[in-house]
Amino acid sequence: MELIIEQIVVYSVVIVFCLVVVILYLRSQKMKSNIVEEKIAQAKIDGLYEPVSLHPVVDFGSCIATGACIQACPEKDILGIRNGKATTINASHCIGHGACFHACPTEAISLHIGTEKRGVELPHVSQEFETNIHGIYIAGELGGMGLIKNAVEQGKQAVENIAKSLKSSRQSAEYDLIVVGAGPAGISATLTAKKHDLKCLTLEQDTLGGTVFTFPRSKIVMTSAMDLPLHGKVKLFETSKTELLGLWQTVLKNNNITIRENSKIESIERVDGFFRVGTKSGEHFNTRAVLLAIGRRGTPRKLNVPGEDLEKVAYRLLEPEDIQGKNIIVVGGGDSAVESALLLAANNKVILSYRGETFGRIKPRNGVSVREAVEKGILDLRFNTNLTSITKEEVVIRVGSDGESTTIKNDLTYIFAGGELPTQFLEKVGINITKKFGEAILKH
Ligand SMILES: Cc1cc2nc3c(=O)[nH]c(=O)nc-3n(C[C@H](O)[C@H](O)[C@H](O)COP(=O)(O)OP(=O)(O)OC[C@H]3O[C@@H](n4cnc5c(N)ncnc54)[C@H](O)[C@@H]3O)c2cc1C
Questions:
Q1: CB environment 298-334: b (16+ within 10 A), e (fewer)
Q2: Minimum CA distance residue for ligand 1 atom 18
């Protein structure tokens, strides 16, 4: 009898222990799930939930919530586990590493472009990267696939195809190929053109490097090695902007290639069987083929005010942590202007000038942060003002269209006045574009 009682006690203790463990586990899962739920709600408020480009889609039927996708993702808070299934959170921050796709042990993730709600405009390109206009090709992120290594690979493949196609015709022109844009795709294309001995000119509206250099972030992640033409395998899995830029510059220099910076292409026309490519400054070049490697970020809009060509004027914010003790004016009323002004205000005297009476459609979180910064006296916010001129040490801002003008001491001027989308440029050139509403680009 005693033995039976003893056994009942032991079993009861074990059962209670197991129950406690299960309850604690379920509670912790529920708590984690709630945190993800809150992050999703915030992402929806901030407009970050709906993806803008390539992003993962989870098949709930196959997902067993191992969390491998979350661990593999080099970015933060793109994915989380909610109610026992992986789900996207800040999907618009996904830059398409695809690490989640490869990491999932049950193959529950596929990569899609656009969503039912938010279509993504993409140009038509053939397998050879040629558009509907014979002789005009597209490579890199403009075609829909993000990432440096993809851009490098596509730049290379596109020029391999162009070289083959040019061989079959005996026409000659000032150039065999003009590459537009010197991001990773354009650089790789330029190197491949050199390899094939093509007469090639590469024109970049800004400076060498492309999109990654226009964002205030120094870490660059590459989930696999890339094969850079005329150089070989690059195994930089985690690198910095400086290191990557140094690599581009060295490889180009070693191959005697000069890229023309500050040359924005504004027109491409067919003239007598060639393409006549025109820059903003009025230069024209004749070429047999064109490769557009202009990415998807577009061209910043200028204010066209006197002094805008001064070196201290910028349309993007690089390395804000290195800017200290300066008198700065940030112009604009969108999220980029507000976020940049807030970042700079930590270590500088910053005026945020916006022509509107209030901010239009900024993220609620930015609205709160800007109000707090103004209340604390960290940020000088001036609605209903227009920047009218810039000199080396000053700027002039005017109230409204004909109000009082004030001259202000100024070291740096940042202008965030929107920009021209690459799709607008493509349409002007005559390239066909379609909207993708959630099409799977990569699936098992
Ligand atoms: C915040 C952020 C972080 C990222 N981090 C990573 C990362 O860690 N790892 C990674 O692999 N990828 C990352 N990416 C993605 C990566 O930057 C892009 O996929 C890649 O740069 C695309 O290369 P691209 O050459 O196609 O275009 P881009 O890099 O966008 O280059 C296009 C170039 O064309 C120029 N151009 C545009 N229009 C014209 C014109 N009309 N005339 C002349 N020139 C023009 C532009 O000035 C630009 O230099 C990140 C992207 C962002 C936004």
A1: ebbeebebebeeeebbebbbeebeebeeebbbbbbbb
A2: 147
Give pLDDT tens digits for 125-139: 999 999 999 999 999
Residue 304, in any domain of the structure: no
Helices and strands of the chain, counted as H and E runs: 9, 27
pTM for this structure? 0.84
Question: Ligand 1: which of 75, 95, 423 to mutate, most ligand atoms within 8 Å of CB?
Answer: 95
Q: Whose CA is nearest to atom 35 of ligand 1?
A: 181
Q: Are residues 27 and 48 in the same domain?
A: yes
Taking the CA of residue 185 as reference, the ligand 1 atom at the shortest distance is 25
Co-location of 294 and 431 in the same domain? yes
**Ligand 1 atom closest to residue 279's alpha carbon, by position in its atom list:** 42
pLDDT in tens, 143-182: 988 889 999 999 999 999 999 999 987 778 999 999 999 9
User: Model confidence over 69-128: pLDDT tens digits?
Assistant: 999 998 889 999 999 999 999 998 898 888 999 999 999 999 999 888 888 889 999 999
